[in-house]
Amino acid sequence: MHNLTELPFPGLRGVPVAEFPGNRKEYTSDQEVRWCPGCGDYAVLSAVQGFLPQLGLKRENIVFVSGIGCSSRFPYYLNTYGMHSIHGRAPAIATGLVTSRADLSVWVVTGDGDALSIGGNHLIHALRRNVNLKILLFNNRIYGLTKGQYSPTSEPGKVTKSTPMGSLDNPFNPVSLALGAEATFVARTIDSDRKHLTEVLTAAAQHRGTALVEIYQNCPIFNDGAFDAIKSNDTKADAIIPLVHGEPIRFGAPGEDGLGSKGIVLDPATGGVRVVRVADVDAADVLVHDARAEDPTTAFALSRLTDASNLDQAPIGIFRSVDRPTYDDLARDQIRTATAGQDRFQALAGLLAGGDTWTVE
Amino acid sequence: MTSSTGTTPARTGDRQVERLDRVIIRFAGDSGDGMQLTGDRFTQETASFGNDLSTLPNFPAEIRAPQGTIPGVSSFQVHFANYDILTPGDRPDVLVAMNPAALKANITDMRAGSTIIADSHDFTSRNLSKAGYSDNPLEDGSLDDFNLHALDLTGMTVEAVKEFGLSRKDAARAKNMFALGLLSWMYGRPTQGTIDFIEARFAKKPAIRDANLTAFKTGWNFGETTEAFAIRYEVKPARMPEGTYRNITGNVALSYGIVAAGQLSGLDVLLGAYPITPASDILHELSKHKNFGVTTFQAEDEIAAIGAAIGASFGGSLGVTTTSGPGIALKSETIGLAVMLELPLLVVDVQRGGPSTGLPTKTEQADLLQAMFGRNGEAPIPIVAPQSPADCFDAAVEAARIAVTYRTPVMLLSDGMLANSSEPWRIPDVSELPTIDPAFATSPNHVADDGTETFHPYKRDPDTLARPWAPPGIPGLEHRIGGIEKKDGTGEISYDPANHDLMVRTRQAKVDGVARSIPDLEVDDPCGRARVLALGWGSTYGPIGAGVRRVRKAGYDIAQVHLRHLNPFPSNLGDILRSYDQVIVPEMNLGQLSMLLRAKYLVDVQSYTSVRGVPFGAEELCSVFMDIVKNLSAPDAANHS
Ligand code: SF4
């Protein structure tokens, strides 16, 4: 029912382009934003409002679907189509929407509790199906809207209202989880790094399939400072392991060659990866990041470098971006094949009168 | 009234032919014996012969329950007649029992004098003890009251097909076709359909195909040559209204109704479903009809299934989800969301025995109150229920009409009995089906104070109170909807007390208003002087109707009315209830509709209930009705009424 317009982005193929470029103001709704002062959500909203017009799409063909939680208020603040649904179900709802409409750019906004606790099942199945939707997972490692219980990404031992003696459960690493769920695009970025955030969102939009973008998001009210190690100027050089496709993975204070003095090498002993001082190894042994690798093993190994407690160390960037047919494209192909060249009304009469019939006169 | 209402015996050739008005046959065997297939073939033969018919499959929840045991028995009952019948029948005239367990599980339904055909081959001491028999009932005289034919069906089958070189096990598997051939001979059924069927089904396995064809023909010939069967029976075709007919089960009719609703509304359909008994066949059926723009999405769970459906509805498709009671429990929150979003959504509940896992393959009507009230907050939804297998088609179209017109989730309450039973269906003329207008919003519907045109997603149609349906893609209609209470008109988040009160009442008024679009109920009261009304809903239509006929045949008056719309009720229901001295409401639950009727109309309806996992019998309901009717017409009853 809509023109297929070829864009440079495979992920946006089929979504009509705008005649005139939009701007931030047009993408901003008239609703008052109601997050707490200093909340990381503001930065992400602002980045998205600046980034969306750059896609050059018709605004009416963009849809944001969210679940429940602080970040899930997101759709109300964007002047696109939107649905603020129920806890954890946004990926399922978006799957139905994407499958039935090839001409929409569909985004899911979710949080760590929404996506990884109550909605965990929908998240992993959206990832394995590879539905063409972009999932922004705001990870603040706490339940904000319900006022501060530990979440499935909180560090073990976290003292909260519901865990006065410390939380007991081991957290999820959302990137590891997504890779294990057969995701084709997995990235991690930080709310306060607008440039990196925009780069990652652009790459996600470009990707045809489910893109999971974990955004480290500070909640100053209930979990302030959760990302200090990777945000503070004193520590971030050692904490952030930057993943850039085609480049050696180096971080830490610059060494003699001007690149980070630390690097990642494959570890034959474990089959994983480990951090080394580049000076101690042959520089050529430092792992060159390959986000396009078919095999997710190394991407998974990299995800394991994430420090589960204080985030003293965390890879940031695109872990994996590979091509695989999407569920929705395949589903529409089947419909297209089946409907080709038939008069549906005639066919209905044929269907109803199929099988063994007899006539009474 | 029994089914052996034989008329003058006639003779053809050397065989006596007895004319009957109706016959009930039950095929019973182990779940691996192919009894469903056998019953289905006999039904197709019977349908093409032109009898009216009604069927009742009955099978265990386990795919292969332990062989030879009573829990592993699978049966298929078919009732056919030379007049229009309403039910699959209470008590079989003929039981085909392929093993001792099948005999034991079904013998209590048999009336003295009826016929039992048993495969003596399987009555081994091992099988007898598995079924709990200490002696062989075929030999110990315990079946003397019946017309017993103990035949070595397996042995005769193996002997007949030995030329095809099958293993003994594969050869024996064709015994169901031998039994089908024999029964087909007894009742003079046309055989070509079954021959074509076997040829198509086993086209790639010639030896199996030939064995089944041979077994079928040998069964027929055995009937003709043996002295054991002195009589053949004849049931003349029924006089039915003009038209082209086919035999159809409820699940298939319901699936076709969904396909048709898509065509009649011009909407693509997206079915989100998770496999569950007894609704899975709707998923299977609809997955075959992609050529109608029907997408089937087998979801990761019940919640994702309805989630995908509501997502598709938001996108401008007809979202449908199909399940059974346990699935509805899981979907409740999302149905509530759909109530808030006010988007069209068809929710199909093929009810089964509950609570919890309950009786997955048995029938029940105990989800009515779940459909009415099973959500948080005031979350009214329209409810529609089909009354017979073929009626599932019309009920699905009607449910879709309400969903699309009123932008609301609608619950369609089928049940296990309707799902798997079949009856002849007069195929409708497609051009005479009602069209459904999605009436999408295409332009702004509000002018702001400053003169700019805007879109208010909750500005309602004054007549239906439906809100505009504006799928993404239209510039200027960008809007956000969600589960949080919204401001009247604009749809913005609102926590204002007066607004919430207004919105709750408005959503209720919208659903109540559906009553204005449904026809008045018509009571079936031929004499016009009945004082007792039998009222039901859903699959009890058949047994209630059959019970009512018996009461009338016995010379008493009773009226009948059946509800298709359970929420809202038709506008004239209250008047109808109040115009009878007594209203009797049979239900396969503990009185759920009765509770609703009493609460709404303050009428002292009488409830009659049963939750045994099987439909009511006509005989049973007849006696319930007779008691009430006779009681009322007793000399002193007038004083009490
Ligand atoms: S509670 Fe935390 S996450 Fe929620 S809005 Fe406030 S600062 Fe942001």
TrEMBL record, chain A:
Pfam families: TPP_enzyme_C
Domain Thiamine pyrophosphate enzyme TPP-binding per the UniProt entry, residue ranges: 68-215
InterPro entries from the UniProt entry: 2-oxoacid:Fd_oxidoreductase, THDP-binding, TPP_enzyme_TPP-bd
Keyword Nucleotide-binding attached: no
Keywords: Oxidoreductase
UniProt cross-references to PANTHER family, sorted A to Z: 2-OXOGLUTARATE OXIDOREDUCTASE SUBUNIT KORB (PTHR48084:SF4), 2-OXOGLUTARATE OXIDOREDUCTASE SUBUNIT KORB-RELATED (PTHR48084)
Entry protein name: 2-oxoacid:ferredoxin oxidoreductase subunit beta
Organism, scientific name: Planosporangium thailandense
Automatic annotation (TrEMBL), chain B:
CDD domains attached to this UniProt entry: TPP_PYR_PFOR_IOR-alpha_like
Domain Pyruvate flavodoxin/ferredoxin oxidoreductase pyrimidine binding residue range list: 271-460
Listed InterPro entries: 2-oxoacid/accept_OxRdtase_asu (IPR022367), Pyruvate:ferred/Flavod_OxRd (IPR050722), Pyrv/ketoisovalerate_OxRed_cat (IPR019752), Pyrv_Fd/Flavodoxin_OxRdtase_N (IPR002880), Pyrv_flavodox_OxRed_cen (IPR002869), THDP-binding (IPR029061), Transketo_C/PFOR_II (IPR009014)
UniProtKB keywords: Oxidoreductase
Ranges where the Pyruvate/ketoisovalerate oxidoreductase catalytic domain occurs: 32-219
Keyword RNA-binding attributed: no
Alphabetical list of NCBIfam families matching this protein: OAFO_sf
Protein's name in the database: 2-oxoacid:acceptor oxidoreductase subunit alpha
